[in-house]
Design a protein that fits this description.
The complex is a heterodimer of chains A (222) and B (210). With 222 residues, chain A is mainly alpha-helical. Chain A has ten helices and no strands. Chain B is globular. Classes of the chains: A mainly alpha (222), B alpha/beta (210). Chains A and B meet through helix 1, helix 4 and helix 5 of A and helix 4 of B.
Chain lengths: 222, 210
């Protein structure tokens, strides 16, 4: 069983390495969206410091969603998804392995880049780790929730747009807590409460989303 | 081993077939024939458990496959219309990934021999996207050389797009599996000559006329 799950993760990472440009697209999208905001709102440092965490969070959220459309799409068209549905391990576990691999590819790079982008918004050095930590806890939740939408919209015409409509409202609590953690720390209130709630969300979605994704995939494959 | 009890399959609001009862015992080859759109692929997907029959039940060793799930799937190999190959992965990596999903760990050497059986001896390190249609089909079938331990093979048109030599290799491996007490369910448009201890022929066109 663990060998099977390891093989699933290894396959996904190998595929991602061979399709490096897909990862680069998501990461560059994140960097560019974050970088164009100062051009729009002007170089006022106080304003940038205030809106910075929110913008980085919204950009991470959009980048996550951009990457989700590809999560099951090619497996669906080339028949690999059928093989996963007929695997010797519970589909829920395979889905956990796949979402983890997907997060490593598309979520972790955003987390790693966030301190660098925070400098663009003149975020004080002590707030940068809070932002990174909030993204570290929040982006897996985005991947898990988004994967439910990706599984349900598989094979549908205009699935990409539908995915956005389905998933974005569900991202709101994560966004509020994530960006709120940095705001609370900036106001001197401490970010523990926000981060703990974010961690609770991660535990909850980690426990339930895989089974919802698995059910969605079975419906799409019928 | 594998039994269906009065299954009926409906796609959309079209009833493809109903009251189909079958029983497969070790060594049985089941040949499914019929014109395009007659329900061959749907039947195969239902027998795998990918598609729920609108009526009736499918049993494996006396238990419903919808209850057994992984316990059933670990005895099953399904090769569908699509080859389930990733263009960016090599033939060998593709085989490793597919066998891993069936719970089988394979060594490089085993995969090389499996590909060689289907005439792909020097192609194992090429990405699947540069292989021809026939070579991709052969790569997908090379999986059968590694999954002999799994008793039930469900093959959707395994012989389509294959040249003469590959058809012989495929028939050879299928007949060996049957002789070892395996079960094979396959659809085909060709005249198949595979020696088997027992053969069930299911012709959808003839069923429709009755």
């Amino acid at each position: 069983m663990t060998a099977l799950l390891r093989a699933v993760i290894r396959r996904d990472l190998l595929l991602a390495w061979r399709r490096r440009s897909d990862i680069a697209t998501v990461v560059l999208f994140f960097v560019i969206v974050v970088s164009i905001f100062p051009f729009g709102v002007g170089p006022e440092p106080d304003l940038l410091r205030t809106i910075g965490p929110g913008i980085i969070w919204v950009a991470a959220l959009l980048a996550c969603m951009l990457s989700l459309q590809q999560m099951f799409a090619s497996d669906y068209t080339d028949g690999v998804l059928d093989q996963m549905l007929l695997a010797a391990a519970p589909l829920g576990l395979i889905v956990i392995a796949r979402t983890f691999a997907h997060w490593l590819i598309s979520g972790l790079p955003l987390v790693i880049l966030s301190p660098l982008l925070a400098i663009q918004f003149d975020l004080p050095a002590e707030l940068s780790p809070v932002l990174t930590l909030s993204l570290l806890l929040g982006t897996p939740v985005l991947t898990l929730i988004g994967a439910i939408g990706a599984a349900l919209t598989l094979g549908l015409r205009g699935g990409g747009m539908l995915l956005a409509l389905l998933v974005l409202p569900l991202y709101v609590p994560v966004l509020i807590l994530g960006a709120g953690a940095v705001d609370a720390a900036a106001a001197g209130l401490g970010s523990e409460a926000h981060l703990l709630l974010l961690a609770a969300q991660l535990v909850l979605t980690g426990a339930f989303a895989p089974w919802a994704i698995a059910a969605g995939l079975r419906i799409s494959a019928e | 081993m594998l039994e269906t009890h009065d299954i009926e399959i409906t796609r959309g609001n079209r009833r493809l077939f109903g009251e189909l009862s079958l029983a497969l015992t070790p060594g049985t080859l089941m040949l499914v024939t019929g014109s395009n759109g007659s329900g061959k692929t749907s039947l195969l997907r239902a027998l795998c458990g990918l598609l729920a029959p609108s009526a009736g039940e499918i049993h494996w060793r006396g238990e419903n496959i919808r209850v057994l799930r992984e316990e059933y799937w670990k005895h099953l190999v399904y090769i569908g219309h699509h080859n389930a190959l990733k263009g960016e992965l090599t033939a060998s990596e593709n085989l490793a990934a597919l066998c891993a999903l069936s719970g089988l760990e394979t060594r490089d050497e085993q995969r090389r021999l499996a590909l060689a059986h289907f005439g792909l001896a020097d192609r194992e390190h090429l990405p699947a996207k540069v292989l021809s249609q026939g070579q991709r089909r052969r790569t997908a079938l090379a999986r059968l050389a590694l999954t002999g331990k799994l008793p039930l093979w469900v093959l959707d048109e395994p012989l389509a797009a294959l040249d003469h030599a590959a058809v012989i290799s495929a028939q050879d491996i299928i007949s060996r599996h049957l002789a070892d007490g395996g079960m094979v369910i396959m659809t085909t448009h060709q005249d198949v000559r595979i020696p088997a201890p027992a053969v069930i022929e299911l012709d959808f066109d003839r069923r429709a006329r009755h």
